[in-house]
Amino acid sequence: MIEYIKLFWEGAPEGELSVILYEVDTGNGRLALRSIDIFADCRTRNIPDLYDGAIEITPIPTVEELNAHVWGEEFHACIIEKAEFEAIWESHTYDGALKESGGF
């Protein structure tokens, strides 16, 4: 099964990405199949192989883990639909929120 996650990085340093979208293979140790980096100026960068050149392969935490702040107070996540991920992947544009709605 494939899961799509939108991860918000609240207070990201200038020039760093603000949102990351992950396509996660939940049947294969929660490894990312693809990801999209979204910067504060809404530029995007598609990453077809998150683990290319990686020394250690790390699974993507669940939304529950991310929202429990296991990885830091500044990270907040939600599940998104495949269609949203694919639209951003194909268009190389993002016009969505750079912060999670509902405030924190």
In short:
With 104 residues, the chain is an alpha+beta fold. It has 2 helices and 5 strands, in the order ββββαβα.
Q: Descriptors for this entry?
A:
alpha+beta, DUF6881, 104 residues, globular, DUF6881 domain-containing protein, 2 helices, 5-stranded antiparallel sheet
Specify the structural class: alpha+beta
- Quote the distance from N terminus to C terminus: 30 Å
Task: Please state how the strands of the largest beta sheet are arranged side by side.
Answer: 4-3-2-1-5
Approximate shape? globular
Share of residues in strands: 25-35%
Order of helices and strands: EEEEHEH
Q: Uncertain spans, ≥5 residues at pLDDT below 50?
A: none
Instruction: Look at the structure and give the mean pLDDT.
Output: 89
What is the oligomeric state here?
Answer: single chain
Q: Helix count, per DSSP? A: 2
**Fraction of residues in H or I helices:** 10-25%
**Sheet with the most strands, sense and barrel status:** 5 strands, antiparallel
Total beta-strand segments = 5
Global Rg: 13 Å
Pfam families: DUF6881 (PF21812)
Organism: Waltera acetigignens
Protein name: DUF6881 domain-containing protein
InterPro entries: DUF6881
Walk me through what this model shows:
This is DUF6881 domain-containing protein. It holds the Pfam family DUF6881. By secondary structure, the chain is an alpha+beta fold. 14% of the residues lie in helices and 34% in strands. It is built from 2 helices and 5 strands. It has a 5-stranded antiparallel sheet. β1 and β2 form a beta hairpin. The radius of gyration is 13 Å and the shape is globular. The termini are far apart.
